[in-house]
Specification:
Blueprint lengths: L1 H17 L4 E5 L6 H8 L8 H10 L8 E10 L2 E8 L2 E7 L2 E6 L4 E5 L8 E3 L3 E3 L7 E2 L2 H16 L6 E4 L5 E4 L3 E6 L4 H11 L8 E4 L11 E4 L1
Parallel strand pairs: 1-3, 7-10, 12-13
Antiparallel strand pairs: 2-3, 4-5, 5-6, 8-9, 10-11, 11-12, 13-14
Helix pairs in contact: 4-5
Length: about 230
């Protein structure tokens, strides 16, 4: 019993003195600063202990952070950890009050600013009554938002990044890739249309014109390219 108590005390001593967290490396973050991530991870009175922080994020459900899908905590040494951040992807932005309103795949506003984030398409044809960071885009037509998000997510899935996405009053869509204008049409077979757009775009490299997918169906499979 004495030996057991001695070993337990020794283990506690090693845990206290040997795992004092001194260095935190953060990667994968764009929406949040390194310091904001550190403050979120080291959020309680025991966070000075490296072992405690690692076990906490591996074994227990931690508080969710807006616009972050997941955080991986890895021990680099008894005194250092690495935090790898997986942020929710920004799929588009609209203009409101002379600012850019960026939103994620679920339609929540990520950022309102004047900066231009690369490889994020602008969305024309929708208006919001009110835009608030961390809140969902407030559209008069919820079905329009759902259609827009499905289209944006499908484009992101295939790494297709248009300059602009247009949403028209008749509930049809188009995507402008600069030299190529892709007319998508309505929401019927939308997922399949984007799949075919992904397959065709490499074949149109160096060309200019309009790609017509609006009439595509499993029975009417013709896709017409109209050169400028």
């Amino acid at each position: 019993m004495l030996v057991f108590l001695f070993l337990a005390a020794l283990l506690c001593l090693v845990g206290i003195t040997g795992f004092q967290l001194k260095n935190v490396k953060v990667s994968g973050n764009e929406l949040y600063t390194d310091q904001q991530i550190k403050d979120s991870v080291l959020s309680d009175e025991y966070s000075w202990n490296t072992l405690y922080v690692v076990l906490k994020y591996r074994l227990f459900q931690t508080e969710e952070i807006p616009f972050i899908d997941e955080m991986e905590i890895k021990m680099l040494s008894p005194n250092a950890i690495q935090v790898k951040v997986y942020e929710k992807a920004i799929v588009g932005y609209i203009e409101a009050n002379n600012q850019n309103v960026y939103f994620d795949k679920d339609g929540f506003v990520v950022e309102i600013s004047k900066r231009q984030i690369a490889h994020v398409p602008k969305v024309d044809g929708i208006e919001c009554r009110k835009v608030v960071v961390y809140e969902k885009l407030n559209l008069n037509d919820e079905q329009a938002l759902s259609l827009l998000l499905i289209f944006s997510q499908q484009l992101a899935k295939y790494e297709l990044v248009p300059k602009t996405i247009a949403f028209y009053e008749d509930r049809t869509l188009s995507a402008d890739f600069g030299s190529i204008q892709a007319e998508i049409g309505d929401d019927e077979y939308l997922v399949e249309k984007v799949m075919r757009l992904d397959a065709i775009m490499p074949k149109l490299s160096g060309k200019k014109g309009t790609l017509h997918l609006e009439n595509w169906t499993p029975l009417t499979t013709d896709i017409i390219f109209e050169p400028d």
